[in-house]
Amino acid sequence: MRPFSTGFSALRTALNRPGQPGAIARRSTGATGLGPLRPRVEIPVCDPCPETAARDKHLSRGRFLARQDAWDRLAAEFHTAERDRHMTPGLLPVAGLLASGARADVMAVARCAVQRTEPRRARAVLAALDLSMEEQPDCPAIAYVAAMAHVDLARDWRGASPPGGLSPQRRDAYNWHMRRAAGLADRYDPFECESPAWAEVRCALLEADPRPGLRAADDFEDLIDLAPLAVGHYTALGRAMRPKAFGSWEMLERQARRTAERTRDLWGAGGYAWVYIGALEADAEAERRLDAEYFAEGLHDILARQPSQHMANRLAAFAGLTMGGPSRTGSARRRIADSLGWITQDHLRELHPRVWALAPMPGRAHPAETEAEDMVRRGRIRAMSSLAEFYAPALQSGHCLVFGPKGMSLMRGT
């Protein structure tokens, strides 16, 4: 078992004595007076952070090229990004962002048709991408843009309901778009094309497969093999292995361990943690089979290999928000939530509010897209509340929590 933190031993000795009101570690989840504690947390805010800037850049580039009908150029940049496995600072594939930007305008119009329940209109809108494919029938990049447009629109028709629970009109529309995407996916083998993007399409199509459990684990294994640094593929596997998706709690545990072993050279035990993070973000029940000590080791390994502030904020938000709140002493949930201590003390130097604003919370609706200013405000509130709750005993004893380039300090307030 790894130490709770490093570099704060003297401070912990003073504040973590049993029964002392100033203990750093959270002693209960029923801390009171959180509102007045917020000003006692001082941390630099970085917005837009490098990850947000990179995502916006690639999305805008894809949208620009599509608006100019520069599909040749888009295909070339997509291919380069795929071949060289270009990633954003937060390890999101650049090729996928280019493609998402390229279909953004078409999707905005098509989604209006979905909102009005006009399936023919929605199909007609996506026909614009079909025309682009006809001009370059053997271009995997353009075909990928079209395939993911059909997947996205199928999911819009489905909404939060399972396909079998849709009205006949919505079910027909959902099936039509999934069939179109599947027809395109059949033309491109992910390994022959060395394309994680097409492996991702195959994973996306699992929800329309009548027997997805037979191939779900294999399809995600292929996806991770093709892009082992893309953390979104691991979290997608975790969501897919839940009983409410294509697996079971036993399959989730098995696949998390298998993935960790296959990617140990890149992530150490981090593969185990990433898969479970995906499951836990979608369903709190995923902790049933989780090995909390192995998971904690995985968190340490992730930050040892990716010590960026984006990653520190990503995992702090997961521990403090997704896994925060009431939990039993000694439970896996409490063990994970308490990781917020060493993550903030050893790694967090600045706040990336958009990361906190978008952190999933099982059982609650995912935050809707809002203006950037509102998202930043929500992220700051979430982060400050989480930090104030976790460090409430120390803050209530008169300390201030101060973050800076050299780390976190607890200082006596004035």
Structure description:
The protein contains 22 helices and three strands. The chain has 414 residues and is mostly helical. A three-stranded mixed sheet has the order 1-2-3. Helix 3 packs across helix 5, helix 11 runs antiparallel to helix 12 (231-240) and helix 17 (309-322) runs antiparallel to helix 19 (339-346). The longest helix has 19 residues, at 140-158. Mean pLDDT is 88; it is low at 1-38.
Which features characterize this protein?
414 residues; 3-stranded mixed beta sheet; 3 strands; DUF4034 domain-containing protein
Largest sheet: 3 strands, mixed
Helix content: 55-70%
Whole-angstrom Rg:
23 Å
Please indicate the count of domains.
Answer: 3
**Regions with little confidence, pLDDT below 50 for 5+ residues:** 1-38
Q: Give the strand content.
A: under 5%
Based on helices, strands and strand pairing, what is the structural class?
A: mainly alpha
Counting DSSP E segments of at least 2 residues, the number of strands comes to: 3
The H/E string reads HHEHHHHHHHHHHHHHHHHHHHHEE
Specify the number of helices. 22
Shape: globular
Average pLDDT: 88
Summarize this structure briefly:
This protein has 414 residues and is mostly helical. 60% of the residues lie in helices and 3% in strands. The two termini are 37 Å apart.
List the helices and strands and how they pair.
Elements: H1 9-15, H2 34-37, E1 41-42, H3 50-67, H4 71-83, H5 94-102, H6 104-115, H7 119-135, H8 140-158, H9 168-185, H10 196-204, H11 216-226, H12 231-240, H13 249-262, H14 264-267, H15 270-282, H16 292-305, H17 309-322, H18 332-337, H19 339-346, H20 353-357, H21 372-390, H22 392-396, E2 399-404, E3 407-412
Helix pairs in contact: 3-5, 4-5, 6-7, 6-8, 7-8, 8-9, 8-10, 10-11, 11-12, 12-13, 12-15, 13-15, 15-16, 17-19
